[in-house]
Amino acid sequence: MRRTTRARTGLSALLVAASLGLGATPAGASDAPLAPAPAPAPDAAALHALDAAVERALGDDSAGTYVDAETGELVVTVTTEAAAAKVRAAGATPRHVRRDAARLDAAVAALEARAKIAGTSWGLDPRTNQIAVEADSSVSARDMARLHKVAASLDGAVRVTRVPGVFTREVAGGDAIYGGGSRCSAAFNVTKNGVRYFLTAGHCTNISSTWAATSGGASVGVREGTSFPTNDYGLVRYTDTANTPGSVTLHNGSFQDIASAADAVVGQSLKKSGSTTKVTSGTVTAVNVTVNYSDGPVYGMVRTTACSAGGDSGGAHFAGSVALGIHSGSSGCTGTNGSAIHQPVREALAAYGVNVY
Where is the Peptidase S1A alpha-lytic prodomain domain (predicted)? Predict the structure, then answer.
């Protein structure tokens, strides 16, 4: 289902031995501010707890939250002094903006109705109080003109940027988790009623019902659920639950324990672990992102600047011990500047009734 701007995301020894990994990334915008170097990262668990508390207190009275790049503080956009008072009471920093959540939702609805073009994506950038649209290199000049026309009719609520590359789901042939002749990555180990599973991308689990740790190897898991397009998550049940720790490989012999899950906040730093590009770092640039892939749209995604490539699909996006998302795709990577998109992990956890551990 389409979401509004208010919507907000360890592996077995067998998979680790097969270099299985986890992933994320997205890029800049023409009239967006230049991205400053991230501030020292606040404690991820504390940040997400504060963000959740603010969201409960304000609901639609906020047009989004973000982490200030210079101070590391959580900033909450508001349009009324009453809402600002609630923000200060919660311990965050209010910032008055021109457009409320309803106006930004209306802008998203206009894009859905009048500019749903393959090769585009859009999402909320609360730092500029806008919906940030990206159009990849496959979008024609005629469609770019159409995008700009729609944006111009929305009184500054939408900005449009052309980005290099093409938005693609990043499945490839190689090593990691294998199914249906394709390679993906696994994200997070999860559990339900004592049964252990792992999460990966839905466009991966659509491909095959069985998954192996090596190409042509024995099955290590069977598909229990899949959702793509609209969403991009899938669930695989382990057929052998020995040595299935709740951690993410860092591809250097060490691992990151995962203790909780949360939704990403614009401006926060994160890491992506994937079987192709291994561990890359980035910053969240937009939430509630729609990506119009050639084979169907996905909604409620998160855009980052982490690098990724084919085979990283299904990998993990995380901040410290907090699970954030499941890698979906990107429009490519230039140097260290990427464009990865992730599916918020909390939505997948809720859909399947599973938990990280």
Answer: 101-153
The amino acid occupying position 268 is Q
Q: Which amino acid is at 316?
A: A
Q: Grade residue 33 by pLDDT with cuts at 50, 70 and 90.
A: very low
C-alpha span between 159 and 133 (Å, rounded):
6
What's the predicted TM-score (pTM) here?
Answer: 0.85
109 φ/ψ angles, rounded to the nearest 5 degrees: -60, -40
239 torsion bin: left (phi>0), alpha (psi -120 to 50), beta (else): alpha
3-state secondary structure of 138: coil
Please give the C-alpha separations between residue 82 and each of 65, 85, 87, in angstroms, as whole numbers.
17, 5, 9
Has 136 been annotated as catalytic? no
Pairing assessment for the beta strands 74-78 and 62-67 based on DSSP bridges: antiparallel
CA distance 92 to 75: 6
- Using CA atoms in the order 39, 45, 47, 53, what is the torsion angle rounded to 10 degrees? 180
Specify whether 208 is catalytic: no
pLDDT band at 37 (very low <50, low <70, confident <90, very high): low
Catalytic residue among 51, 232, 263, 312: 232
Handedness of CA 274, 277, 282, 285 (dihedral sign): negative
Instruction: Name the one residue in this structure whose structure tokens are 């585009």.
Output: 120
Find, among 15, 4, 13, 20, the residue nearest to 314 by Cα: 20
- What share of residues in the chain are helix, strand, coil (percent, to 5)? 20, 35, 45
- Give me the catalytic one of 48, 185, 203, 317: 203
Structure tokens at 271: 């890491």
pLDDT of residue 24: 28
Nearest Cα residue to 267 out of 312, 291, 301, 303? 303
Quick one: pLDDT at residue 262? Answer: 97
Q: What is the pLDDT of residue 204?
A: 96
Token readout for 237 is 């049940």
> Is position 317 annotated as part of the catalytic site?
no
Written as six digits, the tokens of 30 are: 């023409």
pLDDT in tens, 42-51: 689 999 999 9
